[in-house]
Amino acid sequence: MQFRRRLVQAFAAALALAPFAVAAQSPAPPSSLPDGGRTALAGSYELTQTGADSMQKLKLKLHHDGKATLETEYPGYTKTAAGTPVYPNRESGTWQDANGLAVVHLTQSAQIVDKEPQNVRAENETLFFKLTGCTLKLAKDPANAYGTRGLTFTKHHCT
User: Fold this and answer.
1) Measured on CA atoms in the order 71, 77, 80, 85, is the torsion positive or negative?
2) Is residue 66 included in any domain, yes or no?
């Protein structure tokens, strides 16, 4: 009985995520645009929010060539309570337009010290964003890395 309940729960969860899995695996529809149709979603986005210990300024860049970067800065927060320096973080990877969703796959993370990456490490995080007007909102976060609040960015130079 317990096995059947878990099987039904697993099936329901898989069914709920199916549209996002298809979007992540399906290539974007063919486009006559030289950048493969990324024009509407490509650009720079910003978000400022409160974090656990400080303000966080996030910058998401979706480049026309399919590269993506997510930078997190901590304005005014230079040391932890233990005295350890706090550095900005840069995550990088790729992105694609999958049926109107920006699917961002982050594969590397590093601290930025004197404008140079340090402590580079691999990661595997996929985020799904939906653009509405000038707002890019996290539509799906399979790892739940950003909790219930999620992320809502504003596009630069957008009117």
Assistant:
1) positive
2) yes
CATH number at residue 131: 2.40.128.300
CA angle 41, 112, 24 (to 5 degrees): 30
Asked if residue 26 belongs to a domain, the reply is no
Hey, which residues does 103 pair with through a beta bridge?
A: 96, 128
Full-model pTM? 0.74
| Domain enclosing residue 87, as ranges | 38-155
* Backbone angles phi and psi of 4, in degrees to 5: -65, -40
One digit per residue, the tens of pLDDT, for the chain of length 159 reads 443 334 334 434 443 444 444 444 444 333 334 445 557 899 999 999 987 778 999 999 999 999 999 999 999 888 888 999 999 999 999 999 998 899 999 999 999 999 999 999 999 999 999 999 999 999 998 888 887 788 999 999 887
User: What is the C-alpha to C-alpha distance for residues 157 and 43, in angstroms, rounded to an integer?
Assistant: 9
Q: Which residue type is seen at 73?
A: E
Q: What is the domain count for the chain?
A: 1
Cα–Cα dist 97/86, whole Å: 34
